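Record type: ASSEMBLY
Status: queued
Input:
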Amino acid sequence: MLRPKPRDHFEEFHLKKREAKRDFRITELRVYRESIAFYTCRRKSQTIAYMRYIKFVAKAAVIMVVAVTSCKKDADVVPDLSGVEDQFKEYVVRFAAEAKARNVSVNLTKLNIKAVSQRISVGGTSYCGYTFSALPADVNIQIADLSGCWSDIADTNKEILIFHELGHGILNRSHLDDNLPNGLRKSIMYSGYLFNMYYAAQTSLRKYYLDELFNINTPTPAFALPAVNSKILLQDPILSFADWGFNKTNQSLTHTADITNTVYASSGNSLMLQSSEASAVSGSYSYLYRKFPVKDVSAASGVTLKVKVKTDNLVGGASIVIRADYQGQIAGYGTTQDVIDLTGTRDFTEYSTKIKCFPDLADTLLYTCSYMAMLPARYILMTSWSPTNFSRG
Ligand SMILES: [Zn+2]
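Status: finished
Output:
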């Protein structure tokens, strides 16, 4: 006789579940009886055997309850985040996991993080994030939910910001503005601009900063020590303009770019970026760039770009940039912007900039010269890229 077809999948599921349960019980009982037979006297009565069975089941139940409870405790790294607004929870959970990975216990039960709609003004300075009180008191942190502070910044920068504030509130850490020997900031507890202290692809650098956050006595990492075994990775003699890309961030800029063999420093050629008239477009610039596949660069080493630059009546300013990318995203960065003044008229001078901790993950090495035109009119920038040395160290 055919069994009636189950009415729906739900019913079928329960039917199968019941069958499975019954089969399991039978199997379990058989196993039990065999094991009883193994270790009890043959003359034990069925009653005693049954009582032992009950004890066995009770014991198993206790073990299961304990196991379930311990699993819960293990998974429960973050006990209660009711005071933390949803958009920040992911970073607090990450903080707890990083603490646990380093055997540091953190108390997050008094943590409150809330978003505010304006930059937080304290003592005449405005902040993207601010910690108003630390453990053992209630921890009160505010984050400005604004462009440039939170709403549109990269995941890594959100992590840096929240971890810095939790450093104050949960770990009771103060600011630390020291530098490592290679010029990188020593700590995520730096009091100034924090964003892009590390990129996601800089896994060695991130690990160091998190080690230091949870243990202020973390030793100086090897990558920050003075360089040894420096070598030239590449020299670019600037043979063809076709090797280069040229972009304008605003098409109304009157900048042009070319290669020249009349003004040069070392190789007989140089690249030229120029503007024939005033083209003041605030925040806009043009840039020349060249890309190479990454090879023969050790992760976490320093990579330096050296460029010879000649300027002529340059008013807006220029900067030299070295960048490593991974899958089209910035993975490491170095620039002369705000570090070296590249304006006015100056003969060929060598300038350098550096990626201080080369990303562990990188597939493209890129260098560029950016030219920012502002006021007033007629200035020319001559750039020689030869020789261009990428060197470890
Ligand atoms: Zn701070």
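Annotation: The chain has a mean pLDDT of 77.
Annotation: The chain has three domains: 9-75, 86-224, 241-392.
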